[in-house]
Amino acid sequence: PLPVQLHVAMVLPAFLIGTWSLFQSREGSTAHRWAGRAFVALMAATAFSSLFVRAVVGPTIGLGSLRFRLIHRFVPLTPNGLWRGLGAIPRGDAAQHAQAMRRLYLLARVL
Predict the structure, then answer these.
(1) What is the largest CA-CA distance in the chain?
(2) What is the pLDDT of residues 17-47, one digit of tens each?
(3) CB 109 within 8 A of CB 78
(4) In the chain, % of residues over pLDDT 90
(5) Burial letters for 30-41: b for 16+ Cβ neighbours within 10 Å, e otherwise?
């Protein structure tokens, strides 16, 4: 189905960019900032697209005509992590930014 294809098409580059940003890039560099922007956009799009992936197996939660699997409970964690990570940048809180982005990356890998 198209929603699954779109979801996977955003997850894979987000994973690659996130891996590079966390483990290979120099924090604060231009490349790190551009990769971060791409990661944020891809993660936001991934979370949004997951809402359209239909539940077909396992227990579901119904909301009108939409059916969600229990894994969809984690969708709000992505915007929350992005909010925390991005919000730390203008405050100059690099430690909070790094922690929030690491948590988001690890959560995405687990799910």
Answers:
(1) 46
(2) 999 999 998 988 999 999 999 999 999 999 9
(3) no
(4) 57
(5) eebeebbebbbe
Q: Does pLDDT of 110 surpass 90?
A: no
Residues in the chain, total: 111
Distance CA 50, CA 88 (A): 26
Higher pLDDT, 3 or 58: 3
Quick one: tokens of 109? 């890998």
Which token pair is 49?
A: 């697209």
Picking from 62, 94, 78, 61, the residue whose alpha carbon sits closest to that of residue 7 is 78
DSSP string, the chain: -HHHHHHHHHHHHHHHHHHHHHHTSPTTSHHHHHHHHHHHHHHHHHHHHHTTSPP-SS-EEEETTEEEEGGGGGTTHHHHHHHHHHHHTTTT-HHHHHHHHHHHHHHHHH-
